[in-house]
Automatic annotation (TrEMBL):
Modifications made to the protein after synthesis: Contains at least one intrachain disulfide bond essential for its enzymatic activity.
Residue ranges of domain GH16 in the record: 17-216
Protein's recorded name: Xyloglucan endotransglucosylase/hydrolase
Lineage: superkingdom: Eukaryota
Leader sequence residues: 1-23
This protein's UniProt keywords: Apoplast, Cell wall, Cell wall biogenesis/degradation, Disulfide bond, Glycoprotein, Glycosidase, Hydrolase, Secreted, Signal, Transferase
Main location: secreted
Molecular functions per Gene Ontology: hydrolase activity, hydrolyzing O-glycosyl compounds; xyloglucan:xyloglucosyl transferase activity
Organism: Zingiber officinale
GO cellular component, one term: apoplast
Function: Catalyzes xyloglucan endohydrolysis (XEH) and/or endotransglycosylation (XET). Cleaves and religates xyloglucan polymers, an essential constituent of the primary cell wall, and thereby participates in cell wall construction of growing tissues.
Location relative to the cell: Secreted, Cell wall; Secreted, Extracellular space, Apoplast
BP GO terms, sorted: cell wall biogenesis; cell wall organization; xyloglucan metabolic process
Family to which this protein belongs: Belongs to the glycosyl hydrolase 16 family.
């Protein structure tokens, strides 16, 4: 975790970005490390593909070599086919420590023929409990689909195949903490969560189907790297740098509302029983 005072200064540095090219996108050998799984995670095809596997002993995962302050992060993912109950496949951003920031995409497995649940959450300074969940409008096990996280000073946006599904706005003016002072890494993992992943833990993994496997390709991290090579405060990707100032237009908002109307299955901002002392302040600004 970086010192808050240093990163507070960094925020203002970012407002006057000079675009400096970071690593070319797409090669896992160059951009990530497999950090756990004892061989269950593999980089294949000259760095163009990663497979993560899970058996009863362990899952597996990888993390980015770089740390970032803000960025646009994309990956193509093909999920576990068939009976994936009790498993969780993830792609997320996180800092370190008890007061960490985290931005989550988690795919909760299900019984054969039943759809995955896409679980999203945002943590700021160690506080989460901001879950929104969706069913997808396609079978995510049949082919690769692109999942993206945009994180800039204005908002966090989750995308599926370029369609926005959720926005978390910067509402510091309302007293809502917003991630901006801690450098993050990109993470992905495949692990067992039988106690909660499928129908609240009612359905367990069928280990006779193991090993379970998910595949990742097309990874792109366009962000501000901390610290920059050469001793600078930060280096921001020249490629697609418009992400830093991207806001919603009417079309994006309309597409997001279509997804939420048709495919959202849980929104913490409508769960009044969960917050008897009053809804979180950011809920008043939820589109």
């Amino acid at each position: 975790m970086l010192m808050a005072s240093a990163l507070f200064s960094l925020y203002f540095v970012l407002l006057a970005i000079s675009s400096t090219s970071t690593a070319m996108p797409g090669n896992f050998n160059r951009e990530v490390d497999i950090t756990w799984g004892n061989g269950r995670g593999k980089i294949l095809n000259a760095g163009q593909l990663i497979t993560l596997s899970l058996d009863k002993s362990s899952g597996s995962g990888f993390q980015s070599k770089n740390q970032y302050i803000y960025g646009r992060f994309d990956v193509q993912l093909k999920l576990i086919p068939g009976n994936s109950a009790g498993t969780v496949t993830t792609f997320y951003l996180s800092s370190q420590g008890q007061m960490h920031d985290e931005i989550d995409l988690e795919f909760l497995g299900n019984l054969s023929g039943d759809p995955y649940t896409l679980h999203t959450n945002v943590f700021t300074q160690g506080r989460g409990n901001r879950e929104e969940q969706f069913k997808l409008w396609f079978d995510p096990t049949m082919d690769f689909h692109t999942y993206s996280i945009l994180w800039n000073p204005k908002h966090i946006v989750f995308y599926v195949d370029g369609t926005p599904i959720r926005e978390f706005k910067n509402m510091e003016a309302k007293g809502v903490a917003y991630p901006k002072r801690q450098a993050i890494r990109v993470y992905a993992s495949l692990w067992a969560a039988e106690d909660w992943a499928t129908r609240g833990g009612m359905v367990k993994a069928d280990w006779s189907q193991a090993p379970f496997a998910a595949a990742f390709k097309g990874y792109e991290a366009n962000g501000c790297v901390w610290p920059a090579a050469g001793g600078g405060a930060t280096a921001c990707s020249a490629r697609g740098s418009s992400w830093m100032w991207q806001e919603f237009d009417a079309t994006s908002l309309r597409r997001m509302r279509w997804v939420q109307r048709n495919y959202m299955i849980y929104n913490y901002c409508t769960d009044a029983k969960r917050f008897p002392q009053g809804m979180p302040p950011e809920c008043s600004a939820t589109p």
